[in-house]
Amino acid sequence: MHQPPQDRTAFADVLTAAFPAALADEAKGALEVMPHVRLAPVAPFDVEVQGETVTIPSRIYHDEPDAELQASLTATQQLILHCLYSRHCDGRVRQRHLERIVASDEPWVVPFVVQLAGEYVVEILAAITQGLPGLAIPGSAQRRLYGEFIVRNPAYFARTERRLVSYWTCYYRWMHEAFATYPGAVLVDELRAAATEQAGRPWPRHTPRS
User: Can you give the residue range of the structural domain that contains 48?
Assistant: First the structure.
């Protein structure tokens, strides 16, 4: 039996704040299918998306909705839902939903992808690289999209780089002695190149060169 709407939309204000105001109604529609959860989203972070500040939770704890309910949503609502579940506490859930959003050309999807680029699951880093082939191509739409986001959010991207280095040091240095061989290193180098192209000047580096 489905939870009442007021239960399914617990913490709705927190979750709708992860998207531009113009998407508020679509976001509320997506939240209608999310199961009730007692644990609030945690550690929200602010980023700018095309001149508007959005506040995205670092983790959510909702179970995934039934596939039939997901299919009842509009295309935009489904994309919003996948963005939210890319912040799930389970890395396998994050990866499944990342794979549904990574190729999107919507600017408001970009921070959800970049946040995952700074996390610790190497399979997710590989999925981002695979889903963004244009990131390595000068002048591509993907490079412009991600470059614009980074230029608007320099401090956030610097933190992302530092988090990536920290996870490499803690979990993967035994496997990738040189940072440059770590899958995340290649990804952030491409993101930095996108910012360099967009800004028209070398973008600051916060990772080792080798």
Answer: 1-101
Break the chain down into helix, strand, coil percent, rounded to 5. Answer: 60, 5, 35
Into how many domains does the chain fold?
Answer: 2
Residues 116 and 163: beta-carbon distance below 8 Å: no
- Would 88 be classed as within a structural domain? yes
Tens place of pLDDT for every residue, the chain, 210 residues? Answer: 344 444 455 588 899 999 999 999 999 999 999 988 888 889 999 999 999 999 999 999 999 998 889 889 999 999 999 999 999 999 999 999 999 999 999 999 999 999 999 998 999 999 999 999 999 999 999 999 999 999 999 999 999 999 999 999 999 998 899 999 999 999 999 999 999 999 999 999 999 988
Question: Does residue 124 lie within any of the structural domains?
Answer: yes
3-state secondary structure of 42: strand
Of the candidates 148, 73, 59, 67, the one whose C-alpha atom is nearest the C-alpha of residue 105 is 148
> Which one of 70, 101, 132 terminates a domain?
101
Structure tokens at 209: 């060169």
